[in-house]
Amino acid sequence: MNKHEEESIRDLLKQSVTPVNAELSRDLWPQMLQRIAQQANAVPWFDWALLGLLVLWWVLSPSSLPVLLYHL
Amino acid sequence: MPVLEQQSDLLQQFAAGEIGAFEILFHEHQAEVFRWIVRIVRDAGVAEDITIETFWRLHKAHARFDPKRSFGAWARRIATNAALDYLKSRRLEVPLADEIAAADCCDPALRRDMREKTQRAFHKLPPKLRVVAALALIEEQPYAEIADALGISVGAVKLRVLRALRRLRKHLKQMGIEP
């Protein structure tokens, strides 16, 4: 690609896609706090996996569940 | 206490996980981070969401932050990655109608269909090239700043600009436009 082609594509792009001059119109801190609170209440994936394993164990071997509960 | 020392204390408190320090840094940098993101994604509503996502990532990674480094530069790099993730998740999107309308004001001599085709060609660029094309060719940001935000060298930015221009030429030719 020669210099002239490069320049004409640059110009075409600049004329077709305008620069954005948007400014932030509001304070986003309340949403940020909401996001932090949501994540704090979320149950970690590891806990779900552990619960899944327990359920699987109970389904596959129901007779061993009282033993497990006894040891908890 | 001198301002520099105060800022250093603030960054240390942030790295230690203090929410008050995070709030101060959030208010100091949210507008700047938003401006950077909106230049990449070109939509103010989306940019607000990505600004939140950026600060969420910063908050999660507070323990990895080195208080001797610039918070602004770190935030910009994470903002760029968050914006890039957004572009990757929305590949092959069509230009927004209001973007086409906004472009109508610029050069009446340039035909509308030519502008639309150029916008389509721009939106067809792979996200990595689109980010560089938006920042370097449209927003005319300094190459050094783009390199810092992407975590690559200035030479790599120049290379990506060239690759973006080549792709644009190819797409434009396929649509019947000879630049």
Number of strands of chain A: 0
- What structural category do the secondary elements of chain A indicate? mainly alpha
* Quaternary organization: heterodimer
Shape of chain B: elongated
CATH architecture identity of the largest domain in chain B: Orthogonal Bundle
What features would you highlight for this structure?
heterodimer, A: 72 residues, 4 helices, elongated, B: 179 residues, mainly alpha, Rna Polymerase Sigma Factor, Chain: A, 74% helix, 0% strand
Explain how this protein is built:
The complex is a heterodimer of chains A (72) and B (179). Chain A has helices spanning 3-16, 29-41, 45-60, 65-71. Chain A is mainly α. The mean pLDDT of chain A is 86. Chain B has 179 residues and is an all-alpha fold. Chain B has 2 domains: 3-89, RNA polymerase sigma factor, region 2, helix turn helix motif (Rna Polymerase Sigma Factor, Chain: A, Orthogonal Bundle), CATH 1.10.1740.10; 97-174, Orthogonal Bundle (Arc Repressor Mutant, subunit A). In chain B, 74% of the residues lie in helices and 0% in strands. Chain B has 9 helices and no strands. Chain B has helices at residues 3-15, 19-41, 44-60, 71-89, 97-103, 112-124, 127-138, 143-150, 154-174. The model of chain B has no long low-confidence stretch (mean pLDDT 88). The chains are: A mainly alpha (72), B mainly alpha (179). The interface between A and B is large, with 27 and 45 residues.
